[in-house]
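<instruction>
Derive structure tokens from the sequence

<record> Sequence and structure tokens follow
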Amino acid sequence: MLETILFGNKDYFGIELSFTKTKKKYKLRFWLKNRTYGSFTKSGELMESVREYKKFVNNKEDYYLPIFDTFSPAEIDYYLVGFFFTDDKEKIAPEEIDKRQEFFLFFGDQFTNQTGNLLLLYKYPNVIFIIKRPMDGPVDSYEILFETFCKVFNEYIDYTFREDFI
């Protein structure tokens, strides 16, 4: 069996899958313009990534707010996540906090700790990755075509089901 398999490509968008000795636990990471996000030191079940992908794709119009047009990637991250860790949280109505939490997608344990925050937004025709690196690291932003995002993710999903990984 292969040690890793790559769907898509590293220089634009890819999903890399690595195998472990434990059945049903795999390592997973995204490639965005030659940079990796996700950890090959942690493994997890793949169903979470499939479930969150489907949630995002089926409701993509809900993953963008007009206010984001005036925000930098760091400001988007703060608006959706960062405010939780400041006194600003006390100034925001619980209903508004609930709306912001709808933006959270959990792609698996492979993305915890190594990636401080991973947000996906949709603004036609692109998927926008907003990634806050841990430990007060910078906020990275990548735009890829929605069509490419779906093609790569569907190849990954088809493979994982075909090979009975899920």
Summary: The chain is about 25% helix and 25% strand.
